[in-house]
Structure formats: structure tokens, C-alpha cells
Amino acid sequence: MAAAAMLFGACCTKQCDTPSTSGVVMENILARKSVRSYNGDTIPAEVMEDLLRAAMAAPSGRDLRPWQIVVMTDKSQYETVFEGNFNMQKFMESGAVIILCADTTFTAPTREDPDGPAVTQVNHLWRDDMGAVTENLLLAVEAYGLGACWTACYPYPDRMDPIKKALQLPATVVPYAVVPIGYHDGTTQPKDKWDPARVHYNKW
Ligand SMILES: Cc1cc2nc3c(=O)[nH]c(=O)nc-3n(C[C@H](O)[C@H](O)[C@H](O)COP(=O)(O)O)c2cc1C
Fold first, then answer.
1. Is the pTM for the entire model greater than 0.90?
2. Residue of 33, 138, 150 with the most ligand 1 atoms within 8 Å of its CB, for mutation
3. What are phi and psi of 83, to 5 degrees?
4. What does residue 39 show for φ and ψ, rounded to 5 degrees?
5. Which ligand 1 atom is at minimum distance from the Cα of 191?
6. What structural domains and CATH numbers belong to the chain?
């Protein structure tokens, strides 16, 4: 709370109650936390679209945007799609489960022959891109007062395979992360992870 007050108070050049953009954004980032229990209420469609819009605003290598996003709300499918996943209770309690998938290939002319024919190639940066899209989603969830938890999927076959099979994902598409989202009781607090010892100025 003190940190939030400091951010809000200190960022305006004039004395005013209007929080600065930097203050609001910093508060959002520092407030994000993994929330693992939800009340089951559904997420309004317009809110969901905003969350996904924020997710897709993520940076990506060569701007290839490898993401494909599956929004799950039909709980009758969860036992099959998430078979054996120890995060199942979170999924069942959530208002929606987002499966962030990546197409690991892209189709474009090669760098060697930029005017040549389109060729399907491996996107070596898809994992990096997917981390960015997942974090963007989590920050948007926080901004809406919702809760979410990044749950691992890639690279674990036991978590990926049921999803690939149940949803019949194309062979080049990998389910990267599974994010349950829902309304929560507000008791989970963010961790303070600031550690100046992890910062190295101009030398190790
Ligand atoms: C790649 C990745 C995989 C994760 N997998 C799980 C998971 O399967 N289940 C879970 O409850 N939390 C999972 N988490 C959440 C972490 O446990 C959590 O981010 C960490 O404890 C820090 O807490 P915070 O998110 O509240 O800051 C995962 C986080 C990341 C980044």
C-alpha cells in the first residue's frame, strides 16, 4: 500500500490526485500475483476480448506472432483436455481457462532469397514470444481485478499430449501454457521480489 501511495503521489509534476500513467502501470505490475482459487463466475465476453487484446500486444521476434489462443469455458471437456493435470482444481473453479499455443513454424521467403518463394521454416524464438504473451495476459488480468495463474504445459508431454489429442491441434502447434482466470476473494498478496543484489552495473 505504501509503495502504491508513493507511486501515485510522486509521479505527478503538479500536486494532484490523478495517478500518472507510470504510477498506474507500475502498480499493476507490482500487484500481479498467482491466484489459485476462484469463485467460478464466468468472464464477460468484452472483458475476455480485452484480456486477449492485451496478450496479443506482446513483442515477438521478427514480429512473427506465433500465438494461437484457445479459450475454454466448457467444463465438461476439462477432464479430457487436462487429463492428469495437477492444476485441475484451479481449472474447474475458474471462469475460463486460456490455452496459449504456439505455431512453431512460419512461412515466408528465406533471408537468403527474400524475393523467392515462401518456405515453411522453424521459428527459433517461439518460446520467448510465448513468455511475453503469457505475461501480458497476466498483467491485463490483474488490471481487471481478476486472478490467474500461469500453469506449465510445454515442455511436459503428460500435460501437452491430452490437450493436443483432445483439441486435435495441428502437428506444428504446441500448447505452451495454461492459464485459469477467475474472480477471487482478494486475499492473495503479491510478493516483493526486488533484490538489488541481482543487478550488476557495468561489471559482474
Ligand atoms: C513457467 C511457469 C510455470 C508455472 N507453473 C505453475 C503450475 O503448474 N502450477 C502453479 O500453481 N503455479 C505455476 N506457476 C506459478 C509460479 O509458481 C509463481 O509464478 C511463483 O511461485 C511466483 O509467485 P507469483 O506469481 O505470485 O509472483 C508457474 C509459473 C511459471 C512462470
1. yes
2. 150
3. -50, 125
4. -95, 5
5. 27
6. 33-184 (3.40.109.10)
